[in-house]
Write a structure and sequence with these properties.
Number of domains: 3
Distance between the termini: 44 Å
Largest sheet: 5 strands, antiparallel
CATH class of the largest domain: Mainly Alpha
Number of strands: 12
CATH superfamily of the largest domain: Transferase(Phosphotransferase) domain 1
Structural class: alpha+beta
Bound molecules: adenosine-5'-diphosphate, magnesium ion
Radius of gyration: 21 Å
Helix content: 40-55%
Number of helices: 10
């Protein structure tokens, strides 16, 4: 679990305030000095250090001495804030088990109105440089903490799902808070794990959905067999945070790469020869 559910439930009001103050102050400080936290929370120094100690023990906050003394949220702390909000809104009642993990996310099953999926975006420090080059939404500031990068990534994905559902077969977007997207649970498996009986039909269906997204102004930009899920009757396109507008100067080229990735997979695994130009023309229409 990103953070044990009982930690979220048993969090003291002061501890919640400290997490919220850290979140706000991290816009300005990589490591938030104690004095800033004191004035932001109005807690006495002894109360504040006690609460910070508990948050550090729960692995929600980190303390660093260099380059100067300060405190910062770590993923668990940010997860807690998002889960707290989503629980209060009634979107989520209980967190279940982890069903997926990628370079920049962790995906969990949860109970909301039925089974839902929580995708925790984790645009971490290591992938930060690459992400900034790949994606348009990273401002050119030196201090752009992972919490805000992760929240932007979640917002991008949520916006795409809102725009595409239901015209395109994607998960139903339910809610978003901070770096967490709540969406419907897809009862399928990744394309890489399926042995298709009618691969040609599935390939056509994928291209139809890529075309549907294109008509709505969206290019996936990270499409491959890993971001397609299937069951016996249907396929879904998932994982949208890096999508671009069809008006983007490189949209055609990126669309071509998306389509090529899919065609390559069907060629290697099922021996289907589908000319790239023909497939791209189908998508662009
Ligand atoms: N809505 C969903 N329903 C069921 N499983 C999902 C859903 N979204 C993601 N997953 C699972 O989690 C994995 C990672 O999700 P994905 O959105 O591709 O993120 P990443 O950026 O980490 O690749 C997927 O390959 C899939 O197995
Ligand atoms: Mg993926």
């Amino acid at each position: 679990m990103p953070v044990p559910a009982e930690y979220v439930r048993s969090l003291h009001a002061y501890e919640l305030n400290v997490l919220l103050a850290l979140e706000r102050l991290m816009r300005r400080y990589r490591w938030v000095p104690l004095e800033m936290l004191r004035s932001a929370t109005n807690l006495s120094e002894s109360e504040l250090t006690y609460r910070l100690g508990r948050l550090i023990d729960m692995d929600m906050v980190r303390y660093e001495k260099v380059p100067y003394e300060g405190y910062a949220l770590v993923f668990n702390g940010y997860d807690t804030l998002a889960l707290h909000t989503l629980t209060r809104r009634g979107t989520v009642q209980a967190l279940g088990s982890r069903i997926g993990v990628g370079k920049e996310s962790e995906v969990y099953e949860a109970m909301g109105l039925g089974v839902v999926v929580l995708k925790f975006h984790r645009v971490g420090q290591r992938s930060f440089q690459a992400a900034r080059i790949k994606r348009g939404y990273m401002p050119e500031t030196r201090h752009w903490p992972w919490i805000f990068a992760s929240a932007s990534s979640a917002k991008m994905e949520y916006d795409a799902l809102k725009r595409l559902h239901p015209a395109v077969s994607v998960p139903l977007p339910i809610d978003r808070n901070r770096h967490v997207v709540v969406m419907s649970f897809i009862p399928g498996v990744n394309l890489t794990r399926a042995v298709l009986e009618e691969p040609q039909e599935v390939l056509e269906e994928i291209l139809q959905n890529v075309a549907g997204a294109y008509r709505l102004g969206v290019v996936h930009a990270d499409l491959s067999e890993f971001n397609v899920m299937v069951d016996e009757a249907q396929c879904w396109l998932i994982d949208w945070p890096q999508w671009i507008e069809t008006t983007h100067p490189n949209a055609r080229e990126i669309l071509r790469r998306d389509v090529e990735n899919v065609l390559r997979y069907f060629r290697r695994k099922y021996g289907i020869e589908y000319p790239l130009d023909e497939a791209v023309a189908r998508v662009i229409g």
